[in-house]
Specification:
heterodimer, A: 320 residues, alpha+beta, Ubiquitin-like (UB roll), Alpha-Beta Plaits, 3 domains, five-stranded mixed sheet, 17% helix, globular, B: 180 residues, three-stranded antiparallel sheet, two-stranded antiparallel ribbon, 5 helices, 19% helix, 13% strand
Amino acid sequence: MVKVTIDGIDVEVEPGTSILNAARKIGGDAVPPAMCYYSKLPGTGGKCRTCLVEVAAGSAADPRPMPKLVASCSTPVADGMVVNNKTSERVHQNRGGVVEFLLANHPLDCPVCDQAGECHLQDLGYEHGSAKTRYEEDRRTFDPIDIGNKIKLHMNRCILCYRCVFVANQLTDKRVHGVLHRGEHAEISTYIENAIENDFSGNMIDVCPVGALTDKTFRFKSRVWFLKPMEAERNCEKCSGKAVAWMFGGEIYRVTARKDKYGEIEEIDGKTGWLCNDCRFDHKDAKDWNIVGPRVVNRQSVISQGKYVTNIEKPVKRIS
Amino acid sequence: MESLTNRKKIVSDKPMTWVEKLYLPAILKGMMVTLRHMLKRRKTVKYPEEIREFAPVYRGMHVLKRDEQGRENCTACGLCAVACPAEAITMTAAERTKDEKHLYREEKYASVYEINMLRCIFCGLCEEACPKEAIFLTDRLVPTQFERGEFIYGKDKLVESETARIDITKRQFTGKRTHV
C-alpha cells in the first residue's frame, strides 16, 4: 500500500492506482472531473485533459514537484506523493483553458440537446468556463446522422473522448464504428453510414459524456428534469435487467442504465450493469417493468427540481 | 398598561353642551370636507374608454416572439417551465422537418405550448430564463372569462402574428443573447 496526499487528505491505495482513482477513494471535492476516463472501460483516459492535477511532490524518495500538470487518470501514484486538485489555482486556471478548447467547436445548442441537465460538459463549463467565447472562426459542422434506427449521432457536439469506441470494442464482438480522420477533422463515424446493430450498442448513449450520441426513441420527447427517475427491473436474458426508468406520470419516456455519481454505470452483482437494447429501446410500457421505487437524485442536480416526493417515499438505495 | 403606540384615546361620556346639541357646526364641518373633495382632481378613470398609461416595467400577458424572418424563436427547451414558480407552463416538443425551416428557427420547436393564466403570477422568471428570447411579458392584460378552461392559453393566443408584431422594447432589451 502506498500513501498519497490529495488536497491535504491522506489516503492509502494499492500501488499502480491512478491519482484519479485514489481521489475517488477520498471523494468529494478532491475528485478531478473526467470526460474521457471511464473506470468500467479499461484503456480509456488520457485524451480530454480535464482531469489535470498538480503534483507538488513526486514521491517520498524524490520529493521534487512535477514541472507540468499531469493527467490524473493515467498517472500512477507513488508513495509520499502530494497532489493538489481543488486547492490549486493553477489547476483551476488550466482546466478552464481545457474547457475553452473543448467548447471551441461545441455548438452550445443545449436548449435543443437531449443531454442537457445530465451533461458533463455543461457541469464543467458551469464551473470553469467563461460566459463568452474567444473563438472567432467557424465551428466545424456536420449533419446529424442515424447510426442504426435507435441512435442519433450529432458529431457537432462530440468531444472525441473515444468512450463509445471502447464500448464497441469491449462489449461487442464486431466493431463497426470508430474515429475517422485526424486532428481538426476527426469524427466518429461508421464509414459509409453502416448501421450499428448489436444487442449492447445502446450503451454508447450512456457512456457519452456529451449529447453526441442520443436515444432516438427519446428524441425531443421531454427534458430530463421533468421526468422522474425510478429504479426498475425486469427479467432479461441478455442483461441484468436492472435499469432506471425515466417516468412522467405513469408513462416510461426512456430507459437508461443505473449511473453512479461520476456518471458511470453502476456495478450490479459484481458486474457492470450494461443494458441491452431490448430493455433500453423496446420496453417503454410500464407493465413490462417492476418499478421498485424512486432513485435518489443529488439535491444540487437540476433533475431533483420539482420532485417533492423524494423525501416522503423511502429511496431504495443511497448513492455516494 | 402604558400604550406602545401613543395613539390611545380615552373615551368619555360627558353630556353634550347646548351648542353641540344644535349639530349645525358638526354638519358644516362635514360639508366642508365634501366640498373640498369636489374641487379636487378625480383619481379614478373610466376604464374601458380611458386606459391609463402602463408603467414601463409592467408585466402582463405573455407573447411568444418570432425572429425577423418570421420564424418562431421558441425551441421548447423547458427552461421557462422549470423556472416557473407557479408551474403554469407546459409544453411538448417536436422535431422540425425539412420543409418547416421557414416556420421554426431551431431544429426543435414547441408543438404545444400552454400557459395557465390562472396559475401564472406574472413574476417574469420565464422571460429571464429564456435562452432564445422567445417569451416576453407584455403590457397587455389577460381578459376575464367565464370558464376556467379558457384561461389556458395555447400557441394560438401566445405566438405573435407575423403581420401584427408585439412591441416589447419598452421594458426589454433584446439582442443581448444573439452572440451565443
